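User: Thanks for the earlier help. One more: Transaldolase. Can you show the sequence and predicted structure together?

Assistant: Of course, both are below.
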Amino acid sequence: MSRLSRIAEFGQQVWLDNLSRRLLESGRLERWLKEDAIAGVTSNPAIFHKAIAEDPLYRDDLARLRDREPDPERRFEALVLPDIRAACDLLRPRYDATGGDQGHVSFEVSPRLAQDAAGTLAAAERLWAAIDRPNAMIKIPATRACLPAIRDAIAAGLNVNVTLMFSPRHLDDVFAAYREGLAARHAAGKPVDHMRAVASVFLSRVDSLIDARLPEAAAHLRGRIAVASAKAAYARWQEVFGGEAFAALRAAGARPQRCLWASTGTKNPAYSDVMYVEELIGPDTVNTVPDATLAAFADHGEAAETLPRGLDQAREQLAELDALGIDLDAIGERLQREGLAAFDQSYDELLRLVD
């Protein structure tokens, strides 16, 4: 059994944060699924920009699409949605074998719609229909403007991966939107037992920003806040989805929205290259891992149930941060704005590439 596959023993799924035609056609993705228990795949504009720029397997299709499809955004979708479908098909046996709990593949709505709820919902429904696979997930950002789109997409029966979450406020807003969407769907007499959703909590960027703000007297908090906030988020998840607020929906067959740890590639070389994996392994969660971190954990990572441990210490660290006047919700808003700007830039570069 590989080091990566041992993570599944503790109830956590590992998803690959990468997708390309080369990964699919070379059999590399299939080997990861079989040998390392990789249970899902995520994608984003930066991932596809790199794939299209470097992978010659896209060249002929892109040349044909330039003649047939004048709109760059639709051209990009026509180029890569076959890869999303192929990945869904590859993961479908795992999806079926786990009753829909695993085997999902995520594709993102245009980041240009991050402040447009109606446009986001329309794009999510259009992409869901175009992919036409029950194990697809549509990524929607956790902006305040898009919370109604998240709620309505859930009510419409879509699997949703809510992305760009950085703070306790984001967590509570997204959990509420998920519950409201399920409640609306259940009230309309529609089934809720087949639906799955994740809440993607970003980690490494939190430490990068907070570390630079910490005084020397608080140096012991450097590299600790992202993990501490994730542990607190997991405790909040247990309260929300394990309690009375979710009881009626649970009785109707609804599943909790899982916490997904994102941005888990360590940015500071002084820290362990697997810290955002090793320290956050726990039941009913997902860790989406880039190739380099995947390889690092496969080489020297240690799997143990670490997520439920050290909650009191995590809360003490977060209290220390608050006493220093560093507000995690304010940090989260800044990081979300910066994340949206980076996604916009990646998307613009992607559309220029396919144009």
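User: Great, one quick takeaway?

Assistant: The two ends are 45 Å apart (CA to CA).
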